[in-house]
Specification:
globular, 4-stranded antiparallel β-sheet, alpha+beta, 6-stranded antiparallel β-sheet
Length: 224
């Protein structure tokens, strides 16, 4: 497996080589193709997942029948850790965005690791707290900010999490459709299309089917 990626993970960075070997021992690997489902909302949680390569999105169906994207994860991220603490069902659906290699650790095995290495538990709780804070910000934005401001906020977040700098610009390394962006922001594809056109005219972003390029990150932040 990609040992360096595991060692660089915020969850396992402090572990010794011997301790990392234990993690690798209990982690088994699954291969997924783009568009495949890893689990569905409401299924009993079997464990947590570590992305070795590829990208995954967490989604939830809202009352209108539209898909709400809750989060997008990349290589080195772990997700579905909530089932370790409430012993419940998955609160969302996980869908593969790009062909992915996913490491899986069962609840029982991870609980043993957490008992033996409390620092891992602390790190998992910190990451969960960060994600909860981000979710609360998005809920607040839905109620208090207009679509342009919410779009700018999501683009800044995506640039920070999935972007790479090139000649004073930031390219977002995700294949996102306008419908995907609408799902992240909580709006319609038509509205997002109009907002992106405005941002493009203001020379803040450049949008194509393949990628989004942030031309003026500071300018976007001023809109938020």
């Amino acid at each position: 497996m990609k040992e360096q990626l595991l060692k660089q993970s915020s969850y396992f960075a402090a572990l010794t080589d011997q301790e990392l070997a234990k993690i690798k021992e209990i982690m088994f690997t699954r291969q997924y193709q783009e568009g495949e489902f890893i689990f569905f909302e409401g299924e009993v949680g079997e464990g947590l997942f570590f992305i070795k390569s590829g990208k995954v999105k967490l989604t939830k169906m809202i009352e209108s029948g539209k898909e709400q994207i809750l989060n997008i994860f990349k290589a080195g991220d772990m997700f579905a850790e909530v089932v370790l603490f409430d012993q419940g069902k998955y609160p969302a659906t996980a869908v593969v965005i790009d062909d992915s290699e996913i490491g899986v650790i069962s609840k029982e095995d991870m609980e043993e690791i957490m008992r033996n290495y409390p620092e891992i538990t602390i790190k998992i709780l910190r990451v969960m707290g960060k994600r909860l804070r981000r979710a609360q910000e998005r809920i607040r934005n839905l109620g208090l900010k207009n679509t342009k401001s919410r779009t700018a906020s999501i683009l800044v977040h995506l640039a920070q999490e999935h972007g790479w700098d090139n000649k004073n610009k930031t390219s977002i390394s995700l294949s996102l459709s306008q419908q995907d962006l609408a799902g992240l922001i909580g709006s319609s594809r038509e509205t997002i299309s109009r907002v992106l056109s405005k941002l493009k005219k203001e020379d803040l972003v450049d949008v194509s089917r393949e990628k989004i390029v942030i031309k003026d990150l500071i300018g976007l932040k001023k809109i938020i």
